[in-house]
Design a protein that fits this description.
Blueprint lengths: L8 H6 L11 H5 L2 H6 L4 H6 L10 E15 L1 H4 L8 E2 L6 E15 L11 E12 L2 E11 L2 H11 L3 E11 L2 E8 L8 E11 L8 H6 L3 E6 L2 E8 L6 E10 L15 E17 L1
Parallel strand pairs: 5-6, 5-9
Antiparallel strand pairs: 1-3, 1-12, 2-4, 3-4, 4-5, 6-7, 7-8, 8-11, 9-10, 10-12
Amino acid sequence: MQRGQAPFPTQRLLEQPQGKEGGLAPALILCSPLLVNLSQPTEADRLAMRERPPGRPIMHQNWGKLLFMHWRIDAKLLRPLIPAQLEIDTFDGSAWIGVVPFTMWGIRASFLPAIPGTSAFHELNVRTYVHHRGVPSVWFLSLDAANRLAVCGARTFYHLPYFNAQMSLTQTGNTISYSSVRKDRRGEPAELQAIWTIGETLPAALPDSLDFFLTERYCLDTENNGKLYRARIHHQPWPLRKAELNSLDSTMIESHGLTILDGDPLLHYCEELSVEIFWLKEI
């Protein structure tokens, strides 16, 4: 992570006191890279990310039994955890943090058949949302998975903070019980025990809605040795459903040094989604 990065030259100019003639030319200020970087992605920017990238994906996956749990959070608390080049994405002035338990299956490289022992496992991630040069993206604070080979591969080739975990998922009717306990010394101790009930189908998320902002994300950003990378993801819009949280005992957010969040999370559920993962590229 890059912290305390020196301000842009234009930022230093903007901080200088104005002279009798009003200081810097307005055109210089309006063209400042600092101001451009701080601008939020437009609705058109967000919709454009739904288009399938050119070329062949590296991997196919199915995600399902997935629960989005989101809380509002002060962007200042997230700032030390995210590279300085990335801006924190906000909705109506609020940053959000998510905890997302789910299961995966049908996992295979696009040029290979499924490999036994690696094609299905559970995963749990802690995430927030960022943007860079008008592109909205996901920033993962941590990802726990019940597959050692997948953890090793994602750390090596995608520079993602994956950790090994012991995980289980059971379903009775419309009620899902999910458990995850981290078993990896590279990360802080973290666990989650959650039970939720699947609800009715939600209408398609509109581009200006909070539902869209939190779920319709089509790339992930990551960092390695001071360089930023991005991987595109393609799938159909999320077929969201309501959910009711019966119980939750979690230290996933607290494992990142963040304070316990007050209030109930905002919930969205998805039964199944087919996903294409594309190659990681430097940005």
